[in-house]
Amino acid sequence: MSPVRGGTRGGQAEFKWADVSADKDRENYLGHSINAPTGRWQKNKDVHWYNRDQAQTQHERDEEIRKVKELEADALAVALGFEPAKKTIAPAGSPTAGASPPSPAQPKPMTDSTAKALEKEEKRRRKEARREEKRARK
């Protein structure tokens, strides 16, 4: 059995991002542009701006994601020729959120993308009807 070799051979305890920024092969390190910034454009810049001051709570993020998924599902349904699903409209924190459908006197306001999709679908139906008329005449 041979004795353990002395000295340090690098490793996690010896690693410093400051050393990476001075290394000639810094591009080979994952995350080098953020963790070891070099150059004039990074000087006095906050390269971690996207990860700071997150004022949104997890509940708010979940609610936003839910709304986006609902809108995407509606757009997909319209594009496939189906009617969008009926949804309840209530403020996020209200106790009646999700309890009962909205009254027919207050229809859901139509978004631009939904209106365009409905218009496109109507044009497609009219075009198909004209084709059927032509086929019937022949």
From TrEMBL:
Residues 7-81 form the Multiple myeloma tumor-associated protein 2-like N-terminal domain. It comes from the Eukaryota. InterPro entries: MMTA2_N, MMTAG2-like. Residues 90-100 have a biased composition (Low complexity). Residues 129-138 have a biased composition (Basic and acidic residues). Residues 1-63, 88-138 are annotated as: Disordered. It holds the Pfam family MMtag. This is Multiple myeloma tumor-associated protein 2-like N-terminal domain-containing protein. It comes from Tricholomella constricta.
